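Quick bug: Trace amine-associated receptor 1 output formatted oddly.
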Amino acid sequence: MMSFCHNVINISCVKSSWSNDVRASLYSLMVLIILTTLIGNLIVIISISHFRQLHTPTNWLIHSMATADFLLGCLVMPYSMVRSVEHGWYFGEVFCKIHTSTDIMLSSASIFHLSFISIDRYYAVCDPLRYKAKISILVIFVMIFISWSVPALFAFGMIFLELNFKGAEEVYYKYIHCIGGCSVFFSKTSGVLAFMTSFYIPGSIMLCVYSRIYFIAQGQARSINDAVGLEEKNGMSQNKERKAAKTLGIVVGVFLICWCPFFVCMVMDPFLDYAIPPTLNDALVWCGYLNSTFNPMVYAFFYPWFRKALKMILCGKIFQKDSCRHKLFLESHP
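Here's what came back:
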C-alpha cells in the first residue's frame, strides 16, 4: 500500500515502500560511509594542522580539500541519507534549497581541489627546480580561494535564483514537483552548465595533467637508466614506472568511478525526458559522495608520514609536549 509525505495526496511525493529490514540495512551502510568520511578527513585535518613539518603549500591544499569533504559528511550526507531511504523530505522547502546548494558547492569544491592538486603535482614532478618559486603560499591561497568561491557562487546562485529550472519550468511543476520532496532538477541548459563547471572542466584538467606527469616520469626514469647502465634497468625503471602508473591510476580511477556515472546521467536526463528513475539518481549521488570518503586514503594515507601521524593521533601522542615538532620524515625526502 502506498504512503505519502503529505496529506494532500494529489500533490504529495510517495514515501518509500521498502521493508524495515531493507531500510535498516541502507541506514547502516550510509552511516558507515558518513563515519568513515568524517573520521578519515578529520585525521587529515588534525595531522596537517598539528605537525609543523606538514605545513607545506601542497599539504594546505590537501587540508582545504579534507575540510570540504569533512563538511560534506557533516552537513550534507546525514540529510541526504534520510531523503534517500525514506523518499521524502521532512526539513522544509527553505532548508531543501540550502541543503541542495551546500551539496553542490561542497562536492564541486572537492573536485576543484583535486584539479588544483594535479597542477601542484605537475610542477613538483616536471619542474622541481622552479617548483618553490612557482607554487608559493600565495598561489596556493589563490587556488583554495577559487576552489571555494566559484562552487559557492555557482551553487547558491543557481538554486536560490532558480536558474536550474530555466527553460523547463512547465515540465518540472507538472511532472516532477511534489510536496515532501527535495530532488535536484536541471533543465537542458543548466544541466550542461553544471556538468561543464563541476565535472568536465576540472576533470579534464586533472586527466590531462596526470597523463602528462606519467609520460614525463617515464621519460625521466629511462634517462636515469641510460646513465646508470643496462644492468639496473629492469629494477629501477620498471619499479618507478609501476609506482607512477599505480599512483596516477588510483587518483584518476577513483575520481572517474565515483563521479562519472552521476554527471553523465545528470546531463543526459533532461534530453531523455527525465526517464532516469529517482532511485538510480540517489544511488549515483552516493557513489559520488564516496569520492570524499576515499580522498583521505588516496591523497593522504598513501604517504608514509601520514601513516606515522595517524599512529601518533590514535595513541594520543599529539597531546605530549612539543609533539608538533616531531619529525615524520627526513627533510631531504619530503
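Actually, after a second look the formatting is fine. Confidence is low (pLDDT under 50) at residues 6-10. Closing.
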